[in-house]
């Protein structure tokens, strides 16, 4: 019986060894599969994380650029407003000074020369000279100095001073009124003073 027991022990041992080897083999295969799954998932998660980070960076860059653009536009708007306020103030002061000049003694001589030069430039013909309604105190003197018809401009027409001359024969019109000259200066002021905003 001892031999049978030995055989049973050997058989049991062989089976246990075989089972153990199979178990080890299965464990190794399972570990390899789990490691492959882990590496695959790790790479997939890392790719997703990288993509999330890149999208986040793009969004941050986009938001940063939008904030910078808004700030630049706000600054330009403020600069434009300030520039326009300054220009309006300058031209309002210039208009006041021109209006004050029309009340001086020198203005009549200036107006006479302006009318004479304008008539010379516009040529011969049926000429009408328009002066500001505020210059009505000079109307008699001007009518004595010039043979052309001198007319007061409508009081709703802003001239400040100066004159407008119309040659009806050649249909030419010359506007030497202070308000037109001031307006023309205002139009070119930004370029002349290099105050343009890019």
Q: How would you portray this structure in words?
A:
The protein is 71% helix and 11% strand. The model has no long low-confidence stretch (mean pLDDT 87). A hairpin with a 4-residue loop joins strand 3 (162-167) and strand 4 (172-177). The protein is rod-shaped and about 165 Å long. The chain has 198 residues and is an alpha+beta fold. The chain starts with a helix and ends in a 6-residue tail after the last helix. It folds into two domains: 1-101; 105-192, hypothetical protein PF0899 fold. The longest helix is centred in the N-terminal third of the chain and has 100 residues, at 2-101. The protein has helices at 2-101, 105-122, 139-145, 178-192; strands at 127-131, 149-152, 162-167, 172-177.
Properties at a glance:
alpha+beta, single chain, about 200 residues, 2 domains, hypothetical protein PF0899 fold, four-stranded mixed β-sheet
Which regions contain 5 or more consecutive residues with pLDDT less than 50? none
Mean pLDDT: 87
The SS-based structural class is: alpha+beta
- Topology, number of strands: 4
SSE run: HHEHEEEH
Topology:
Blueprint: H1 2-101, H2 105-122, E1 127-131, H3 139-145, E2 149-152, E3 162-167, E4 172-177, H4 178-192
Parallel strand pairs: 1-2
Antiparallel strand pairs: 1-3, 3-4
Helix pairs in contact: 1-4
């Amino acid at each position: 019986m001892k031999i049978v027991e030995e055989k049973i022990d050997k058989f049991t041992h062989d089976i246990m060894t075989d089972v153990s080897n199979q178990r080890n083999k299965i464990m190794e295969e399972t570990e390899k599969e789990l490691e492959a799954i882990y590496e695959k998932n790790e790479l997939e998660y890392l790719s997703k994380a990288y993509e999330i980070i890149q999208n986040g960076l793009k969004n941050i860059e986009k938001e940063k650029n939008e904030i910078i653009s808004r700030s630049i536009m706000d600054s330009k708007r403020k600069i434009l407003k300030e520039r326009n306020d300054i220009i309006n103030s300058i031209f309002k002061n210039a208009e006041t000074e021109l209006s004050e000049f029309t009340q001086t003694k020198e203005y009549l001589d200036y107006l006479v020369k302006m009318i004479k030069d304008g008539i010379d430039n516009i040529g011969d013909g049926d000429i009408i000279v328009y002066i500001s309604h505020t210059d009505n105190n000079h109307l008699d003197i001007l009518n004595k100095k010039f043979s052309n018809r001198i007319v007061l401009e409508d009081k709703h027409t802003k001239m400040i001073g100066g004159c407008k001359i119309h040659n009806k024969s050649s249909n030419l019109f010359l506007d030497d009124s202070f308000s037109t000259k001031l307006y023309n200066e205002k139009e070119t002021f930004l370029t002349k003073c290099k105050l343009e905003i890019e």
